[in-house]
Amino acid sequence: MNAPFVSPIQDLLDDLHARLIEQRAGEVATYIPELGKADPEWFGLAVATLDGTVYEAGDSRVPFTIQSVSKPFVYALALQDRGLPDVLKQVGVEPTGDAFNAVRLEPYTGRPYNPMVNAGAIVTSTLVGGDTYEERRERILSGLSAFAGRELVVDHKVMDSEAATGDRNRALAYLMHGAGTLTCDVEESLRLYFEQCAALVTTTDLAVMTATLAGGGINPLTGETVVSVEAAAHALTVMATCGTYDYAGEWLVRAGLPAKSGVSGGLIAALPSQLGLGLFSPRLDPRGNSVRGVAACEELSQRFGLHLMRPA
Ligand code: GLN
């Protein structure tokens, strides 16, 4: 009898899980106190292809708060609702080479450098469609849910924990309000951003959300058009140049894929027109990227020849 067929993708995910689970370098983020309660051993991997097939390994169904991995998705929603020229008036697209929470704005425009760092993401949240805080909040949650193909909910404990300790983001928001690039009420804008960051997802959700961007804005599971091809392409482009903060350059050289990381340990990477990768493991390197996530993603890229700059 023939051995049952195991997809090479599933095979590699299982193999990566078995090997990288031994990797225990890095620290769980604690500056948002609730995040410090994460199990450092969690490790989930998932791949979603554009035909709607999902491969998973490890803790791929453990819920965690999305944090900064929300940024490219909310940026795509803002582009969809306002268009690139209007969004560019308030948020730039230049890489910073700085940490995710750097307190630095563009010198002449007062814009945050890009939507993948905290400053830019705080403004971006206010640019989604809606005239009131309530309407924008609803737009963000339903938009993130459409990317995932299921209804997402917010972890209010994590949200409140960040709201109570987020002085650095508060400082950034006041600076941008003073510069005229954050035009909404400061406390409401921060609340919106903290809420977005506290949306609960699984590694599998991340893979599907990323496959939606890779597929030009169409969710491969539900068939719903979540954002336009242009909005998805712009979000992927900014992920490529700015998605892993001060590691973005080396990341692109090594993995060659648009990506985004977050402090709860989530990491996504996209192969346009093909697939979305989701990784999750809470131990972070000093730049705030998941140690196992980065290692798994770089190996997946190398083993399957996914580097976008390399001829097939
Ligand atoms: N909510 C987090 C913060 O603003 C998100 C940061 C991150 O995931 N890198 O600090």
List keywords for this structure.
alpha+beta; binds glutamine; two-stranded antiparallel sheet; Beta-lactamase; globular; 9 strands
Please explain how this structure is put together.
Keywords: Acetylation, Hydrolase. Its EC number is 3.5.1.2. It is an enzyme of class 3 (hydrolase). The protein has a five-stranded antiparallel sheet with strand order 3-2-8-7-6. The protein has a two-stranded antiparallel ribbon with strand order 1-9. A two-stranded antiparallel sheet has the order 4-5. α2 packs antiparallel against α10 (229-242) and α4 packs across α8. The protein has one domain: DD-peptidase/beta-lactamase superfamily (Beta-lactamase). It is α+β, with helices and mostly antiparallel strands. It is globular, with a radius of gyration of 18 Å. Helix content is 45%, strand content 11%. The mean pLDDT is 97. The chain contains twelve helices and nine strands. It has helices at 8-20, 71-82, 84-90, 118-126, 133-148, 156-165, 167-179, 186-197, 203-214, 229-242, 248-254, 291-304; strands at 27-28, 44-49, 54-58, 64-65, 200-201, 259-261, 266-271, 275-280, 283-284. The protein binds glutamine (GLN).
Helix content: 40-55%
Oligomer description: single chain
If you average the pLDDT, what whole number results?
97
The helix/strand series, from N terminus to C terminus, equals HEEEEHHHHHHHEHHHEEEEH
Count helical runs: 12
Shape: globular
- Give, in spatial order, the strands making up the sheet with the most strands: 3-2-8-7-6
Whole-angstrom Rg: 18 Å
Q: CATH fold name, please?
A: Beta-lactamase
CATH architecture: 3-Layer(aba) Sandwich
Strand content bin: 5-15%
How many domains make up the coordinates? 1
CATH class: Alpha Beta
Q: Could you give a short account of the major beta sheet?
A: 5 strands, antiparallel
The CATH superfamily bears the name: DD-peptidase/beta-lactamase superfamily
**Ligands and ions found:** glutamine
Q: Gap between N and C termini, in Å?
A: 35 Å
Binding site for substrate: 68, 118, 162, 169, 193, 245, 263
Protein name: Glutaminase
Subunit structure: Homotetramer.
Keywords: Acetylation, Hydrolase
